[in-house]
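Here's what a typical entry looks like (Phosphosulfolactate synthase):
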Amino acid sequence: MDFLDVPLRTKGERSYGITSIADFGTPIALLEAYLRDYHAYIDIAKIGIGSAYVTPNLQEKINLYKKYKVIPYCGGTLFEKCYVQEKLDEYTESLQKLGIEWIEISNGTVDIPLHKRLSIIKKCKKHFNVIAEVGSKDQDKEMPLSEWEYEINLLLGAGCKYVITEGRDSGTAGIYNSNGNVNTELIERISKDIDVNKLIFEAPTPKQQMFFINQFGTNVNLGNVKINDVLVLETQRLGLRSETFFLGEKTWNLP
């Protein structure tokens, strides 16, 4: 079908309008079925938490993602585990051997000082495209609004391709409160003076995805999307769901 007036979507190798899925152990056969049908709607695949370390068919999975032009990378929890055990050199060497070209630098579980993260980013960006993450997985830990803005600016200035705003796979921490509602004051603050095209908002539920689509338009970057929700998300992006039905007037212009 190609006869409706729908919001313009970025296509191909997008620099924004990104959908980043979270892979928590999708079987290869099922993954290939999803990618065969929906790869045009997926840009990045995070092999979630530390699951990459115990995935028996990891190389096959990475190759499959790359076959369908989806960028694979490992979740920040694995990075933090390697940091704590002082195994970052072994970690980055393993990523290179696997053909993974992106790395996440986070501090969602471990409180890694900002200056230390910036130093790691400086080293890693020689060999990888770097994604950083801001925010804690601890529901009881609140960062001041000014600190969110300060960290994001420094991380982007250090050469990160994108900064992820923490939301967990449950959507109950970081930019969300414990019942899954968006901290709207925080989102308004960090989007006021920061290019939202450089932010990936973790939004694991359709309700959260719809908030960001209505707030920032069709081509907002969204992460921690479940692979079985990819088609629903694309439907939402194109104003083909009730909650985003009148999206057209908020559409961002394509370059």
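The domain at 19-242 is CATH 3.20.20.70 (TIM Barrel).

More examples are in the samples folder.
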